[in-house]
Design a protein that fits this description.
This protein has helices at 55-80, 82-89, 93-121, 124-141, 147-174, 181-210, 213-220, 226-232, 239-252, 257-281, 284-291, 296-324, 326-337, 341-344, 352-363, 370-377, 380-398, 400-411, 416-436, and strands at residues 3-4, 10-11, 17-18, 24-26, 36-37. The chain folds into two domains: 1-52, no CATH class; 55-442, Up-down Bundle (Growth Hormone, Chain: A). Strand 3 (17-18) and strand 4 form a beta hairpin. The longest helix has 30 residues, at 181-210. The strands form two sheets. It has a three-stranded antiparallel β-sheet, with no helix packed on it. Helix 4 runs antiparallel to helix 7 (213-220). It is mainly alpha-helical.
Length: 456
């Protein structure tokens, strides 16, 4: 219920929002941590969003963000060195693109498994395990003697990749104040752009000097981050409450129509989400290196521009979602990208830099709403499992896109530019339409306390 405050100290991160004229507080947000902020005795104003979270909330968010950065780095270095790997092992790019499909398929298993663990023993444990898992797989790829070993190890890599996002996104969104959760969602997913950016920069220096294997050695080093996560990130998951809520959910049965609607609709949105992202980015380095004949350094520059755009675009998309709603935020990003598609694939000489920036700022922005949207759909007791399922079912559906795109190029006579424009553009528009036609059941309140969904 609203309370009136007149100058006393309130917990920072409590989710209490103060009306600028009346001083009344809205206590709908999640409970925060220990920091405090003093308010003036008169003319009380809302705290800036970045001051509302306390120290523990920032540490928790940082752990999830860093995990996602590492996830992106590890995934992207493979995309960047596919031509070099294909040459060394004497195989076509389609074979290597097929391993992307295997990676994304196994993400579903990792996401659901991590969600089940997170719903029973807390969000932090699966996050730590996933980071170690990724590091071990990367180190092993650096020593792979054949393409078969690469395919096996990258498939196993997908398990840890799915586990990391599920546990990290749930941990971050549950502990962040409601008012700025849209912005936090965008920044969290923008960590993927940072990881991609780091991969592009590092590959531009490392590959010409030491070859592609050195990249995977570097990717194994961040396993050491498990130690600060273990001792510096608080675990606030209430096991007893979650158990009671799971029993209540079980009494409604697995065929609860509201839950099924949310699972199906969320999976559809995520399939379009992944389709747009992978359609635009999975074969982009191959396009630049083969059809456009760019050097490793030239590719690195354009991929860097894409990811600077993505870093800004995901934060923008999250901020717009907080104000106007998720559907409008995605529509702005999706339709904003369409005019820039010819520039993105190099059809307008001299303007690829602008197309690359737009590809990140508009085309890669919609994933920024994923943590916010998915964690708002399900109650805390089953949130980890459901978020992991929905996110990675979407990845499963879209997993065939990179392989299908490569096959169209190699066997159907299409160019990389044509398939990137078509697949990326169609999936972006489809995601915008899926959000605009959102079923009413997904707008109702979850069965138990959960991060509040954004309107729209």
């Amino acid at each position: 219920m609203p309370e009136t405050f007149t100058g006393e100290r309130i917990p920072r991160g409590s989710g209490i929002l103060l009306d600028m004229h009346t001083g009344e507080g809205d206590t709908q947000g999640l409970a925060g941590d220990r920091g405090e902020a003093a308010l003036p005795a008169s003319g009380a104003r809302a705290l800036p969003w970045w001051k509302e979270p306390g120290r523990e909330q920032w540490r928790t968010f940082l752990a999830a963000w860093v995990g996602w950065v590492l996830d992106a780095f590890d995934f992207t270095i493979y995309l960047l060195v596919m031509p070099e790997m294909a040459k060394e092992f004497g195989v076509g790019v389609t074979v290597l693109a097929g391993s992307i499909t295997l990676t994304l398929l196994v993400r579903l298993v990792g996401g659901v498994a991590a969600g089940a663990v997170a719903d029973r023993w807390g969000r932090k444990l699966p996050l730590m395990i996933s980071i170690l898992w990724l590091a071990l797989c990367d180190g092993a790829v650096a020593l792979a003697p054949s393409i078969t070993w690469v395919l096996v190890l990258r498939t196993l890599f997908g398990f840890g990749m799915g586990a990391e996002w599920t546990s990290g996104a749930t941990l971050a969104m549950e502990n962040w104040p409601e008012r700025s959760r849209g912005i936090a969602s965008g920044i969290l997913h923008g960590g993927w752009a940072v990881g991609y950016l780091l991969a592009a920069v590092v590959s531009g220096f490392v590959v010409p000097l030491w070859g592609w294997r050195a990249l995977f050695v570097i990717a194994a080093v961040p396993a050491l981050l498990v130690l600060p996560i273990r001792y510096g990130v608080p675990e606030k998951f209430d096991r007893e409450k979650a158990l009671a809520e799971r029993r209540a959910q079980a009494s409604r049965g697995l065929m609860d129509p509201v839950l099924l609607t949310r699972l199906a609709w969320g999976s559809l949105v995520m399939a379009c989400n992944f389709g747009g992202y992978y359609g635009l980015t999975s074969l982009y380095p191959v396009l630049l290196k083969t059809e456009l004949g760019m050097s490793v350094q030239g590719v690195s520059v354009l991929v860097t521009i894409v990811n600077v755009g993505m870093l800004l675009g995901t934060a923008m998309c999250g901020a717009i979602a907080s104000r106007l709603g998720v559907a409008k935020a995605v529509a702005i990003a999706a339709f904003g990208m369409l005019p820039f598609l010819p520039l993105y694939v190099g059809m307008v000489p001299g303007w690829m830099w602008l197309g690359a920036f737009a590809g990140g700022f508009f085309g890669a922005a919609p994933p920024g709403i994923a943590p916010l949207l998915l964690t708002s759909l399900f109650p805390a007791s089953i949130r980890g499992k459901c978020v992991g399922l929905v996110f990675h079912v979407g990845a499963f559906v879209a997993a065939f896109i990179p392989t299908g795109m490569a096959a169209l190029v190699e066997h159907a006579g299409f160019t990389h530019a044509q398939v990137i424009m078509t697949v990326g553009g169609v999936c972006l528009v489809a995601m915008a339409l899926a959000l605009a036609l959102r079923p009413r059941a997904t707008l109702d309140e979850p069965h138990s306390e959960a991060p509040s969904p954004m309107h729209g």
